[in-house]
User: Fold these one by one.
Assistant:
Number 1:
Amino acid sequence: MMLRVILNSREETLRLGMTLGERAVDGTVIALVGDLGAGKTTLTQGIAQGLGVTHPVTSPTFTLVQEYEGRLPLFHCDPYRLERAEDLLSFGFDEYFERRGVVVVEWADKVSDMLPEDLLAVTLSLAPSETIDSDNHPRNCEIEAYGVASMSLLLAVKEAFA
């Protein structure tokens, strides 16, 4: 099952993320895909808000994984700078899926072979637009569930955005 939405602003991207974070359960894995500037980090910031994280969330491009405390811990991973996906294993990347919490992976397409089967895949792309304001540039968003737990989350998000 897939849900397609158009996010017309940064605020709508944050709202989608908050909806995901509010409805996420222990073990939720969210795989984000999209070009630079597509809104992956903004969506993650919304997820963090929905989880009750109070610290600022930034892209962990140089640290690979950032951990945040909230209703559930948030593990935010960004393998953008890695030359090989296997390099993540030396950081214990696979162990995050066994810990209690929510795992969000930006640039998930770079490490897709290392992700669990049950995940929510979110693809963001800039929609054609006349605006040059990056905060308010519309984004196409496709959300697809792979597995029982992620299907439940997708249905909850669909209901919230209906």
Number 2:
Amino acid sequence: MAEFEFEHLIESIPDYPKPGVVFKDITPLLADPDGFAATIKNLADPYRNAGVTKVVGAEARGFMVGAPVARELHAGFVPARKPGKLPREVASEEYALEYGTDSLQVHVDAFGPGDKVLIVDDLVATGGTMVAMVKLIQKSGAELVGIACLMELEFFNPRDILAGVTDKELHSLVKVS
């Protein structure tokens, strides 16, 4: 597949969900068959020979890109959910928000020693959810093989934040400065 121009299928919505925020709407990209296929292929490509056994994505938009990347890599998919959404014993990791904290949970048996895990999300901004997923992987004894996202909001410096918890490089398809 040739190089794909993702930006024309990502809509900027000013003042959503609150004044001053410019929301990046990826639904036109996901609705476009060529755009969706290029997204999944380009997120998966750097990890095709990494032996990925599991892909983890945070709810809910991380599910939209993480699950197809897992399928593309012939790996399992692990949903990282908000508290109270998973029915069995969970591992939890809290992360900071602009005003307060939240947490992500995975089943305690979702991955462990011997697993090679790739984190996939739609967007990274302040890095909180990705840091939480990195820590969940580290606590499990699994190996983190990479971090990939469709869009990186560079002005939040997520690479610096992620460097505080892992030496894995962030792979992003679209950089917003």
Number 3:
Amino acid sequence: MNPRLRLLQPYPFERLRQLFAGVTPRTDLRPISLGIGEPKHATPEFLKAELARSLDDGLAAYPATAGEPVLRQSCAAWLQRRYGVTLDPATQILPVNGSREALFAFAQTVIDPTRPGATVVFPNPFYQIYEGAALLGGAQPWYAPSDPAKNFAVDWDSVPDDVWARTQLLFVCSPGNPTGAVMPLSEWEKLFELSDRHGFVIASDECYSEIYFRDEAPLGGLEAAFRLGRTDFRRLVMFTSLSKRSNVPGLRSGFVAGDAGFIKPFLLYRTYHGGAMSPAVQHASAAAWLEESHVTENRRLYREKFARVTPLLEPLLDVRLPDASFYLWAGVPTSFAAHTPGLSADEAFARELLAQYNVTVLPGSYLAREARSHNPGAGRIRMALVADTAECVEAASRIADFVRHHA
């Protein structure tokens, strides 16, 4: 067996299952889960119809790993509309089976474990794939903390120069999971300067880019590079997906785009790895990237939901409307740390909330790591507002009652 597998920590939802062992929720309240970031809004009818039409002739041949030109062109058209950037569909865009698979595989392409001290830097808290990809690629993770006083922006200045010097890959996530923070142009400029100085690659995870609450859409990595005159997108690859944008997590469809010098070896890796996308999924995906009205409606639903839920929780928890994404990243009262010996405040909060109100949330400490004597997720919970508005409002009302009764 690959000895690096032993380095992997239990996935957050496995830890949650263990935390809830022995808990018997109230039976008079229907269960509501805010634990998993799985979109629940309806899949657009046009997308389902396009997928069905493609089944007749879309399964009889092996698909090309590079994807059909029509899909790559639709991705390029979306990038032009959304960010104002122009990329070559043949050399700078590659379809992938969702951003999760691609983020992991890209790290295996980039990391050179034979170089002493190979390091991958990413935010803390973070999406767990970053850590697993680094460890299985033979690199050491380095956890860059976020700053609660600055809307959970990542404190890149806390990364020492000697760490940057051995960094091969930097994962960024904007809008962030779980914090919802969006990186401004000044932050991108700092990271591009560091990449130029030290030679590392930036993998920009942007799967939440279309769920936002202000008039201005979140800045993307390619857009930032273009604004700063980096039109070759050197050492930058962005990752996006239809899962959240179009409510199709089961379609497993996304694409990567950016520096052609890294897209080419990534295509080679994926050719051997078997990462080709089904032709039927490709045709449906091409249609989805070209259609925006369903995205606008999806965003309207999330805005309505957050506008109703956030005011219910703000007076009782340390929480505010995020820049973007569909998560609320809330601080819980520190008094919960004393409720159950051996559990942190966020763990005790989640466990008692399930038992007493049948609502599931994810402890923030499960999305972060102890680094420099601190786990930046400790004392916080992540709530995924993915169900319909009425269910999310009911969950928020239960959480508010729960906190009031434990004040």
Number 4:
Amino acid sequence: MEKEFTASELDRIIQMAWEDRTPFEAIQMQFGLKEKEVITLMRAHMKASSFRMWRKRTNGRATKHQLIGNLENGRFKCSRQRTISNNKVSKR
């Protein structure tokens, strides 16, 4: 059974799939799609060359798989990401 998504949901799923630091498990938690379903969705909504490039990037990438990558406390956050405190962003 294929799930129905709005255009904005499809855009968000594709964006999350392209992001290096967003694991497939995050997509599954948010949209209920398993990795194979994400691959099928990407194949259907992308040009063949773009799909091949995406598969080459994600195949075996530790950050795209929660069990391989290192997620702390179930949070999908890069370890190098800064926290914003008191709404002040450092400027250079």
